[in-house]
Write a structure and sequence with these properties.
This protein is an alpha/beta fold and 328 residues long. The protein has nine helices and 13 strands. The chain starts with a strand and ends with a helix. 31% of the residues are buried.
């Protein structure tokens, strides 16, 4: 932990104490002369020192508060230097499917699973990307859990961003299942992983509903970049997309979704799990990543603690003592 100051010159405010101290000394000398002239005894030393010490304390505390000190807490963590994970979240409109308007959507369930999977991989840098008819990075692999959670909660949402214009121009009116697994091949070519990452894992959380895809082409791209894959499927034949509590007639669950994922997994030498089998997906992820060298990282982005309000509050204690003694 370190203490820094935002406005060090603010401490000069403590020099204002010279005015009351000078006034106090002048009054004390005049009072001493009067007591000697009247033959009165001098008061005990402690009665004369208390107001001086109190004034000095008030000035010192307020001067220190004016410098705006803050406490910076630094933590360290061990981070895998040879392994990275990218979680790809399907954000097409079909991920709004749910059993009833009161139940969580597929995307909401996928986000819960992504957070749990992240928590099960401590020290491994994990990134987030979104999937429609393109894969867009939102967070490159990072060991910072807080940044991951914030990105997952605030940046990932249905069609944020929307599918590319090429899809919209070709889509049938009213049909918005924009997922295209062919775009996963771009993960291998667009530097989603750092060159130092020898263990690379791609986790795709999706309903599996996609137009026909040349699975061997995607598989060759990912395997060529040494990227292992895990697919987590969120799909149910009884789920629908609701608008104002009414199912949208344009959306019907695609019963071929699982077979599409199975073909992709076969060509990428990956694995497919349904949402109720998250534990198996976690074990597979750990197996793929294995163990390896680590590096120590410092984290100084925790919110600093401002000390000025506390110093100003403590300054009221000697000030209260001065006011109390004034009436005695």
């Amino acid at each position: 932990m370190t203490i820094d100051f935002l406005t060090p010159p603010g401490g000069l405010i403590a020099l204002a104490v010279l005015v009351p101290i000078a006034a106090f000394l002048a009054i004390s000398r005049r009072a001493a002369r009067m007591r000697r002239g009247l033959g009165l005894p001098e008061p005990p030393l402690r009665f004369r020192l208390v107001p001086v010490v109190a004034v000095l304390a008030v000035a010192g505390l307020l001067g220190l508060a004016a410098t705006q000190p803050f406490l910076q807490r630094t933590t360290t963590r061990s981070v895998r230097s040879d392994a990275e994970v990218v979680m790809v979240m399907d954000i097409s409109r079909s991920m709004l499917a749910q059993r009833s308007p009161a139940d969580p959507t597929q995307l909401e369930r996928a986000k819960v699973a992504a957070a749990r999977l992240r928590a099960s991989l401590p020290g491994v840098p994990v990134g987030i990307a979104s999937l429609t008819n393109r894969v867009l990075p939102h967070l490159f692999p990072s060991a910072d859990d807080d940044v991951f959670r914030a990105t997952l909660e605030r940046a990932i949402g249905i069609e944020r961003p929307p599918p590319g214009s090429s899809f919209l121009s070709a889509a049938e009116p009213g049909v918005r299942n924009a997922t295209s697994f062919a775009s996963l091949a771009s993960v291998a070519t667009q530097r989603f992983y750092s060159p130092a990452a020898r263990h690379r894992l791609l986790v795709v959380l999706t309903d599996g509903e996609s137009p026909r895809v040349a699975a061997p082409t995607v598989g060759r791209s990912l395997r060529g970049a040494a990227i292992e894959t895990v697919f987590l499927q969120y799909w149910d034949a009884n789920e629908r997309v609701f608008t104002d509590g009414t199912p949208e007639p344009q959306y019907q669950p695609n019963p071929a979704a699982r077979s599409i994922l199975d073909r992709l997994a076969a060509t990428t030498q990956g694995s497919v799990y349904d949402e109720n089998n998250l534990g198996a997906a976690v074990r597979r992820a750990r197996q793929v990543l294995g163990s390896g060298p680590t590096r120590v990282e410092k984290d100084e982005r925790r919110r600093p603690l401002a000390l000025a309000p506390y110093l100003a509050a403590v300054a009221f204690l000697p000030l209260t003592l001065l006011l109390w003694r004034r009436d005695r």
